[in-house]
What we know:
The protein is mainly beta. It has helices at residues 166-169, 174-184; strands at 8-10, 18-21, 23-27, 30-34, 47-53, 58-65, 73-79, 81-88, 99-105, 110-114, 118-124, 129-135, 144-146, 163-164. The chain has a single domain (8-23, 43-184), classed as Jelly Rolls. It has 2 helices and 14 strands. The strands form 3 sheets. Strands 1, 6, 8, 9, 11, 13 and 14 form a 7-stranded mixed sheet that branches. It has a 5-stranded antiparallel sheet with strand order 2-10-7-12-5, with no helix packed on it. The longest helix is centred in the last third of the chain and has 11 residues, at 174-184. It is globular, with a radius of gyration of 16 Å.
Amino acid sequence: MKLKFMTIKKISxxxxxxxxxxxxxxxxxxxxxxxxxxNFNLESLDSIAISTNPKKGTxxxxxxxxxxxxxxxIVTCIRGSVFDVIIDIRSDSKTxxxxxxxxLSSEDALQLYLPKGIAHGYQTLHDDSVVHYLLSSPYxxxxxxxxxxxxxxxxxxxxxxxxxxxxxxxxxxxxSAAKIYADSLNPGFS
Length: 190
């Protein structure tokens, strides 16, 4: 299992990842934006989540879930802006171990589709940034993991980290995360 994780790519260059503009209509009352999982052929829609982040420099992730709760995600920044980072931990992917980055903001109105097997995280670039998720699987504590983003010194985090969860700070190495995800794809995984 050889990881290529020192290469930073545009996020859309990671296999299966799609970036699209949100349907948006504006008039004198304001703006209406439509978040549609159908635009991405999402297997199912289990839940919608909102992540509020009061402080610039908040670092969340890099999160993933193993089977049978691995998630497809549609990620959108609906207030402020974030530096979004993904890592492909799918050993059968041609972009396995590669890192993709993209700045998302409420102004650019982009949606990011992430297939199963992509670890995801971000750092807030403004106070009061809000990230919206459409998720294909329910949250499972037993199947939820984090990769320690501070140990990945090749990721160019744009601002000093002010807040990070203990779970993320104590997260897995990238190599361990890839192995855990690969093991979950085997029927005998416990």
